[in-house]
Amino acid sequence: MNHWIVAPIVLPAILAPFIIMVLRYHLDLQRIFSVAGVIALLGIALTITAQASGGEILVYELGNWPAPFGIVMVLDRLSAMMVLLTALLALPIVLYAIASGWDERGKHFHALLHFQLMGVCGAFLTGDAFNLFVFFEVLLIASYGLMTHGGGSVRLKSGVQYVAYNLLGSTLFLFALGTIYGVTGTLNMADIALRVAELPAEDTALLRVGAVLLLLVFCIKAAVLPLHFWLPASYANAPLPVAALFAIMTKVGAYSIIRMYTLAFGPEVEATQGLVGDWLQPAALLTLAVGAVGILGSQHIARMVAFCAIASMGTLLIAISQFTPDATAAALYYVFHSTLATALLFLVADLVMERRGGAIAPTAPMPQSGLISALFFVGAIAMAGMPPLSGFIGKLLVLDASRDASDATAVWAVILIGSFVTIVGLARAGTLIFWKSHDTQVVTIEEPVEGEEVPAPVAPEPQLGLAITAVFGLVAGLILLTLFAGPALEYTSKTAAQLFAPENYISAVLGREE
Hints:
This protein has 20 helices and four strands. By secondary structure, the chain is mostly helical. Helix 14 crosses helix 19 and helix 15 packs parallel to helix 18 (465-483).
C-alpha cells in the first residue's frame, strides 16, 4: 500500500502530542517544530497531488482490512487538491502567528494547530462516513481551543456558542449515519453508493430522511443560511490568524456535499433525485445575499470579513448545487480562490486592529497605513470578484456554468448584485479606515491648556518583517492562481469528470469492476 496517503494525518497526529508533552515549556522549539511540520505537510501534499494527477484512485486500508469491513483512506484528485490547499494555507498562517506574537498569548497554540490540520486532512481523505464524523469531532475540539486562545470573556462566550451549535450538528450527524446504516447496512461511502442504487423505490423513504439530515449537517459546517448564525460572532471574536485558518473549515462542509452527493446520492440516483439541488440552491442564493448585506452593514472590520466568508460560501454553493461537471469545475477553482482571499482579509484585519482598533470609523492615522491599505485593496478586489485577480475568473466561471440552468436569471442577478454590494461595502470600509483617518489629525486631551489642541499620540510603529511576508505569501497565491488559471481549470475540470464517474471510485475502494 502507498503510505503517503495517510501521511497528512499521521504527521500532525504525532507532532501535536509531541509538542504538548515534550516542548510545552519551550516556545522557540515549538515554533521550529511547528513550522517544520507544516513545511513537511506541504511537501507531502505536493507528492500525493502529483500521484493523483494522473487520474488513478489510490486506497489505503487501515489494519489491512479491506472495504467495506475496514476503514479506508482514499486519494483521488479532489482529496489531493483539498489537502494541498490546507497545507498552502497553513504555512503563511503559522508564520504570521509567530511573527505577530499570537502564538504566545495563550497555551498550546501550535499543538492545537496541528490537531486542526489532522482533522481537516482526515476529513478530506477518509472513505468512510463514520470516520468523517470522527474527524469532524477532532476539528471541533481543536477549533474550540484555538478560538478561545488568548482568553477574554467575549471570546469565551463566542466559543461556547460555536461549540453548542456544532454539537447540535454532530448530534444530527449521528442521527443521519444511524438512519443511513439502518437502510443500507454500511457506512463505507463506496458501499453506500452500491446499496443505494440497488434499493427498490418503495424502500427509499427512510433513505431520503437520512440524506436530508446529512445535508443539514454539511450545511451547518458550510454556514449556509439559515444555519450560518454561529459564524459571524465566532470568526470575528477569534484570534484573527485562527479565523484565517478557519477559512478552510467551511470548505470541509462544501467538500462533504460534493463527495457524498456525487458518489452516494448523485443526481442520477432515482432514490434521492432532485433532493439536494432543489433545497441547496435557494439557500445558497440567500446565503450570498445575506453575506453581501452583512458586509455593507458591518461596523467592525473582523465582523465584515466574517460576512465576506459567508458571501463567498454562497457563491461556491450556488455552483455546487447545480451538480454538473462544468459547474463543479468552476466551484473547485473558486474553492481555492475564496480560501486564500478570506484568509488574506482576516490577516489584514489583524494588522489593522493591532494598530488602530477594529471599528470601521475615522480615527487618527495608523502606522504603515499605505502598505496595509494596499494589502486591503488587493484582498477587497479579490473577494468582490473584480478583475484582474482570480475572483473575477472564478465568478465568471460560475456564471458561465449557470447559463443553461432553469433559474439562470436568478443566479446571475444574485451573483452580480451581490458582487456590487460587496464592492460598495468593502470600499466604504477602506475609505473610513485608511482615507478618512487623515481627516482626524488631532484630539483634545482630558484637561487641555485653554485654547490649545494637542496631537493624538501615534502608536509606535510595529515591525513588519515576517508577518507582512506571510500576508504577501497569500497575495502571491492569488496572483499565481490568476496567472495559471488555465492549468488550474484543466485540473478542476478533470477532477469534476472523475467525480461524475463514481463507478471508478467504487471499483477502486471495493476492488471490483462495476
